[in-house]
Amino acid sequence: VEQSKVLIKEGGVQLTLTIVDTPGFGDAVDNSNCWQPVINYIDSKFEDFLNAESRVNRRSMPDNRVHCCLYFIAPSGHGLKPLDIEFMKRLHDKVNVIPLIAKADTLTPEECQLFKKQIMKEIQEHKIKIYEFPDTEDDEDNKLIRKIKVINNSLFSSHIKLDLRLCNPSHYKN
To answer: Which intervals hold domain Septin-type G (predicted)?
Structure first.
């Protein structure tokens, strides 16, 4: 588990974004329990936050919890691998899971659309909860969410650029 931090500033709001990468995940010959280091990392961050919140002095309490998992799916065109299903099942109750087709621009638009439908069908069959962008009261947030939903309903493709903006997390529910 590798961690990187970047400070994002927009409209007077500062956000420290932490990116956690798991290089080599699922590359072993025996992948049984390969998700355990990721689950342990997520659990330890939640435990650290709970311990800090339980203290008498809570002034400097950084939130290092994992709030979202961008789960990249190999563009095989054959649906989810058993490892993908097992990992997302173990993860979906801990963090918001957003499945993405990795290197989607290597597929034709028709192949990508069929692959996405297959993935969504398997996600529903296995009762895996994925993150759904909610409606909000803020027009700017709604415009961004509509833009994301349009992209989501067409294709997840690496050649599409998405305008990411800071959003008020109080608008969203886990």
So the answer is: 1-174
Q: Positive or negative CA dihedral for 26, 5, 169, 148?
A: negative
Burial level of 100, CB count in 10 A (0-12/13-18/19+)? middle
Distances (CA, A) of 27 to 24, 76, 97: 5, 15, 21
45-61, pLDDT tens digit by residue?
989 888 888 888 777 77
Instruction: Give me the residues paired with residue 100 across strands.
Output: 72
Three-state secondary-structure class, residue 27: coil
Least confident of 36-40, 79-83, 121-125, 137-141: 137-141
Neighbour-count burial for 85-97, b at 16+ CB within 10 Å, e otherwise: bbbbbbbbebbbb
